[in-house]
Design brief:
Order of helices and strands: EHEEEHHEEEEHHEEEHEHEEHEEEEE
Distance between the termini: 31 Å
Largest sheet: 5 strands, mixed
Number of helices: 8
CATH architecture of the largest domain: 2-Layer Sandwich
CATH class of the largest domain: Alpha Beta
Strand order of the largest sheet: 1-8-18-17-5
Helix content: 25-40%
Structural class: alpha+beta
Length: 356
């Protein structure tokens, strides 16, 4: 499944680009629906409000069929996006209006300057060095996957009033959701474009690292692991990142996290004890965090926009176009949801990656 751009008006299907450019890169231009009058319409964003517009596109799906397809796709997407959902739920997002027309986000990193003084008359002058800014860039590629229906499949569904089989759309949405999650975790190769690189939690060069005891090691105890987690917390605090934190463990840790913490506390698990640490909001398990070379991993991350945010140029969207004289309808599930991991100019960050 590819991650790529429509750039300088060049793409695999020029008619798609023409329609998008004519609609100021509004994805609604490629979502035509058939009204009760048999005519074709699209819904475009006009000043932040939806507006229905007549179109010459040959619409096959009704508005209700689009709703059915979108509901199935978003349901699958939400099921697979645990860390992405956590970041969105915490408000750690940055929206880019009309993200299809923007290929790179330029942002600034700044150092801290100056100081404060204590004096009886207020006449002492505090230092006021000018802040130093450094420009950085984040690529904004599409993440997408395709599926198709034949015109006959769609005609049969329309004539018989049978629900549209959304299985292929759900599979495409699952692939996009999984890739978005893995990109955020840093379990894909880094992606470079336009002077910037996309990194995730496990491959961000500025992340802090730690080595912890394997849960399968002879000397492992729950108490020792708790002490190692507390050391990781102190490491983040030494970087001036004071939480709140969420700790994400790879799936291999589950059998140890959910076991009793000790015989003295039979109803409290190791996970419960870690959650009780001041500043720790939650302890969660993620798919794709472990690898063949490193099975036992965890990420301790400050949930703050100064540490991480999702740049959203386009939410999960399904686009449509046809070929073979309209005998085949092509659909593309796509999004622009890109992780932006952040460190200041002193390379201080609130992300710690620990493995065994």
């Amino acid at each position: 499944m590819p991650i790529d751009f429509v750039y300088n008006g060049q793409a695999s299907n020029a008619s798609m680009v023409d329609k998008l450019e004519a609609a100021n890169w509004d994805a609604g231009a490629l979502r035509p629906w058939r009204g009760n009058d048999g005519r074709s319409y699209v819904t475009l964003n006009k000043g932040g409000k939806p507006k229905t517009v007549r179109t010459t596109a040959n619409a096959t799906l009704t508005k209700e069929a689009w709703l059915q397809l979108d509901t199935a796709i978003m349901k699958i997407a939400r099921n697979r996006l645990r860390v992405v959902a956590d970041l969105r739920g915490a408000g750690l997002t940055y929206g880019i209006p009309n993200g299809m027309g923007t290929t790179v986000l330029e942002y600034q990193k700044m150092n801290d300057t100056g100081n404060a003084m204590i004096s009886m008359d207020g006449l002492r002058q505090a230092s006021d060095f000018r802040p130093v800014f450094e420009s950085a860039y984040l690529p904004l590629p599409f993440i997408h996957s395709d599926f198709q229906y034949s015109a006959r499949q769609l005609a049969t569904a329309r004539q018989t009033a049978a629900p549209l089989d959304t299985t292929t759309g759900e599979m495409a949405a699952r692939r996009v959701a999984e890739m978005t999650e893995r990109l955020t975790l840093g379990r894909l190769d880094s992606y470079t474009y336009g002077g910037g690189t996309i990194y995730g939690m496990c491959n961000f060069p500025g992340r802090l690292t730690a080595t912890v005891t394997l849960p399968t090691a002879a000397g492992f105890t729950n108490a020792n692991h708790l002490a190692e987690v507390l050391t990781c917390k102190q490491t983040l605090q030494d970087q001036n990142h004071f939480g709140p934190y969420v700790i994400y463990y790879s799936a291999a840790w589950d059998r140890y996290l959910d076991n009793d913490y000790s015989t003295l506390y039979p109803n409290k698990s190791l996970r419960d004890r870690i959650k009780a640490i001041d500043g720790v909001q939650d302890v969660r398990t993620l798919d794709w965090l472990d690898t063949a070379a490193s099975t036992y991993n965890f990420i301790m991350m400050e949930m703050d926009t100064g540490t991480i945010r999702l740049v959203i140029g386009m939410d999960f969207t399904t686009l449509e176009w046809d070929d073979m004289g309209g005998l085949r309808k092509n659909y593309k599930v796509m999004c622009i949801i890109i992780p932006q991991l952040r460190a200041d100019m002193d390379d201080q960050t609130g992300i710690l990656h620990a493995n065994s």
